[in-house]
Specification:
11 strands, alpha/beta, binds adenosine-5'-diphosphate, globular, six-stranded mixed sheet, binds magnesium ion, Rossmann fold, about 260 residues
Length: about 260
């Protein structure tokens, strides 16, 4: 079944075009890696799929519904999570909030069935051992895995992840990309993952989309990740190098200045 279908999708903010002419199709269970420089429109596309942003023209269908009719199918993991870290919540409570929010509870009391699901979700991301620790005291990689567990608790058919690897050191990146690989292998969740550094995710990408305020390329990784395509967005120094049967992309766009490390 087709999970997502966009035809000539153009997204605006108050009439001003942010992302133009995007056409792509994603089958259920496929993982799309969404690549593009800062300001390219990656977050804009995710928010439109999730119905957080509604100003668009063209066609966008999510499991053959309008995005706003498909909200309960979608789990969204925002880039810099909106959790207030001054509130001393445990890892387990943060995950349970995903279940409580979806059920429309207005007060924070965790029903036993939600607690059970939260424990299962934490076990799935390999964090049972820190369930009672305060979220704010966890490492960056652990926090990101907690947020994945929080998104998984409502059994989404689609996961939208906004730069889940940014601001993480290389070992935490591996931690999180391993969990993303496990989600892909063991659940049939369709994923759209935005990223600056595509290399740690290439193994799980069925499709790659490159955007820069409009669609540059969409297709299988080997179709999109070509020197000529990458150079057209990232400049003449960008390249794609085959290493041992795998591709490695050098784009020079890993936000070293912002996050202080990692990538090339
Ligand atoms: N709320 C908003 N109002 C107006 N313009 C916005 C808003 N959010 C994003 N934009 C614009 O849309 C473009 C794409 O932004 P964004 O989707 O955040 O890019 P990316 O996630 O690829 O860095 C940018 O030019 C940005 O300034
Ligand atoms: Mg963004």
């Amino acid at each position: 079944m087709t999970a997502m279908n966009a035809r000539d999708l153009t997204i605006m903010y108050e009439g001003k075009v942010a992302l133009e002419g995007v056409t792509f199709k994603l089958e259920e269970g496929e993982t799309l890696l969404l690549l593009g420089p800062n300001g390219a429109g990656k977050t804009t596309l995710l928010k439109t799929i999730a119905c957080f942003h509604r100003e668009y023209r063209g066609e966008l269908r999510v499991f053959d519904r309008e995005p706003c009719e498909a909200r309960e199918l979608i789990g969204y993991v925002p880039q810099s999570h909106s959790l207030n870290e001054r509130v001393p919540l445990t890892a387990l409570e943060v995950v349970a909030m995903g279940g409580i929010y979806k059920r429309g509870f207005s007060h924070f009391k965790i029903p036993p069935e939600v607690l059970k699901k939260a424990e299962d979700a934490l076990a799935f991301v390999g964090l049972s051992n820190v369930k009672d620790r305060l979220f704010r005291e966890l490492s960056g990689g652990q926090k990101q895995r907690v947020l994945l567990a929080r998104a998984l608790i409502s059994d989404p058919k689609i996961l939208l992840l906004d730069e889940p690897l940014s601001a993480l050191d290389p070992s935490a990146r591996a931690e999180v990309s391993n969990v993303l690989g496990k989600i892909k292998r063991e659940r049939r969740i369709t994923m759209v993952i935005t990223t600056h550094d595509i290399n740690p995710l290439l193994e799980i990408g069925d499709k790659v989309m490159l955007i820069n305020r409009h669609l540059i390329a969409f297709g299988r990784p080997e179709e999109v990740l070509k020197d000529s395509v990458i150079k057209s967005v990232y400049g003449p120094l960008a390249r794609v190098i085959p290493v041992g049967g795998k591709l490695f992309c050098i784009t020079g766009d890993t936000h070293l200045h912002r996050h202080g490390g990692g990538g090339i």
